[in-house]
Amino acid sequence: MLVALVDTLKQLRYQIAHLEDDTMQSEYPELATFIQQVGLTVAESKQELVFLYQFLYVYGRKSEATYNRFRNELERFYLWSWLVAEKSVFELKREDIEAYVDFMVEPDKSWAMTSVQWRYKDEQGIRRLNENWRPFMLKESIASQQTLAAMFTALNVFYKFAILEEKTFANFVPVVKKNSPYLVVQSQIKIPDTLSDIQWEYVFGVTRDKCEQQPDLERNLFTLACLKGLYLRISELSERPQWSPVMSHFWQDNDGFWFLRIMGKGNKLRDVTLSEDFVTYLKRYRLYRGLPALPRVDESEPLVHKIRGQGGMTVRQIRRLVQQSFDLAKQSLLDDGFTDDAEQLESATAHWLRHTGATHDAQTRPLKHLSEDLGHAKIATTDQIYIQTNIKERAKSGLKRKI
Questions:
Q1: Do residues 314 and 244 make contact, with C-beta atoms less than 8 angstroms apart?
Q2: Would you call 277 helix, strand, or coil by DSSP?
Q3: Where do the Tyr recombinase domain residues begin and end (predicted)?
């Protein structure tokens, strides 16, 4: 039976302690039994698992999203190494890594699930395994370029860390990646995923129009304004262990300009500028919540509130709000005959709103200003993603050439 090796970020320190104190059997009975049954010795399995936990603690404690990405990639790598290759992860050679990549591209169907499943839950003080959990999601097509890139990144970082900790002296991942037949060299032209003008008009407009009949949609409207108008990542708007976005993070300077202080990737603080249009929707949202029109420096109200319960919203909850607005827009697009736009909206995610806002504003704002509001460490990143001027000029110059 396949067993989830790693629990949530919150439980990670407890798992480390249970392994070190030899109390895993009483707290994680299914995992303890699994450790006894794999091909390695019990001591080796425990040592490797402790190392995995320590790696995840070092690299994942700053961000739960980062933790989840590394956990998912390395957990299935460990399981493959132990159950398929029947080797320690530190004994794997180049050909083994290549075999794992083949497995990633086409995993055994018994390793895949059709829907997202929880791993463990409390049952009378014991963390019980969900037997329906599997390391992969069942897909009709082979692994995407993004999935393979994430896998190579996770393995490369893991083995670099292992070398520093003197657990191994070789990292075969870069050479396997360089020669992988599954990776495709990206085109020079890489346009970010964005909503079309009409899709954005419907997503925002339909939500706004329905607020009169459904006042709680004011929360959706404000969320859309933040993600598109301030170029926020959805994680930057959500409640996190290290950061709780609250209304006092809005602030005004001596010249009357408004900013929002947020914590971005790598726990880096930045101040995003607010447009006059955004301030209008900020006032609207605050009045709906029964607050004064503009924020004060001492306000502890969450930025995006829960209808029930205390505190701010999680990434998953905010994603649901965005999806609700997407669904409303899709139906209105279909009703008005815009079938193609409605169908394309099905694949949209909340992150498209950040790209939509930045792509639109790149036509009018200085690149440096846009880059700083986006939170990019390098201005070249903004240029590469959002500035398509050279591509368009190249297309124009080649338009009249003769055959």
A1: no
A2: helix
A3: 190-400
